[in-house]
Design brief:
By secondary structure, the chain is mostly helical. It is built from nine helices and no strands. Helix 1 (about 10-30) crosses helix 5, helix 2 (about 40-60) packs across helix 3 (about 70-85) and helix 7 packs antiparallel against helix 8.
């Protein structure tokens, strides 16, 4: 049984990789932890951000990673990381540009992941899952390498939710017969807009405080409390 043929346009994939590389380098350049990163460390984070989403996408789909089949992926990620380092000071002053870049990267990787998953025959729900993993995968790898709490696991500005909204939009439009390219463009726009609005208006999902309290109450109900008078 032959694998369905689906090829993401090289220029589009390289654009996503390059934007991810710039974003990763900007994040690493502005990192102020106990130990600051050197130039190599910043470059590695940029490369991971640029190539991580595509690698996770293809691993989940059990296909040969596209980013390892062409020299230009690693070159684009590396050059983009260098650009991010060189222009870090300028970009840090342009906070709006960073927000838009972040949202666009999430949207691109989510759309590409969902499109490829649908093209190889996955049902709608698993295809959306692959797309979301591709969208947030680079950020997860970045946080793990830098020893930081994984961003999407904590209260934030609808990072994964924005990606999921775009992926669901793409899969839904494709199910109704909309051309995959047009559906992908609309999906990227949906993710970008939701992410930007969430950051601008500081919107996030409610914290799990009530759930946590109930869980603690249940877990500790049977634990005897030892008081000083009992000893």
């Amino acid at each position: 049984m032959t694998e369905p043929l689906f090829v993401i346009p090289l220029w589009a994939d390289l654009t996503a990789v390059a934007l991810g590389g710039i974003q990763g380098a900007l994040f690493a350049s502005g990192f102020r932890g106990q130990r600051r990163l050197d130039l190599l460390g910043v470059a590695i984070i940029g490369i991971v951000m640029g190539m991580g989403g595509g690698l996770i996408r293809d691993l989940l789909l059990n296909v040969t990673p596209a980013t390892l089949q062409n020299n230009w992926y690693l070159i684009a990620a590396t050059l983009a990381s260098l650009v991010g380092m060189l222009l870090a000071g300028l970009f840090q002053r342009l906070n709006r540009a960073i927000i838009v870049l972040d949202a666009l990267v999430i949207g691109l990787f989510g759309a590409f992941g969902t499109s490829k998953a649908l093209a190889v025959g996955l049902p709608l729900v698993p295809a959306v899952f692959v797309g979301v993993c591709a969208a947030v995968g680079g950020g997860i790898l970045r946080d793990m390498i830098m020893g930081l709490p994984v961003a999407i696991m904590h209260v934030g500005s609808l990072y994964a939710v924005a990606a999921a909204a775009g992926c669901v939009t793409l899969a839904g439009l494709n199910a109704f017969g909309v051309d995959l390219v047009l559906a992908a463009i609309i999906a990227v726009s949906v993710t970008t807009v939701i992410r930007i609005l969430a950051v601008v208006f500081d919107v996030s999902l409610p914290e799990q405080r009530v759930l946590h309290r109930r869980k603690v109450a249940i877990e500790t109900a049977a634990i005897p409390i030892v008081r000083s008078t009992d000893v």
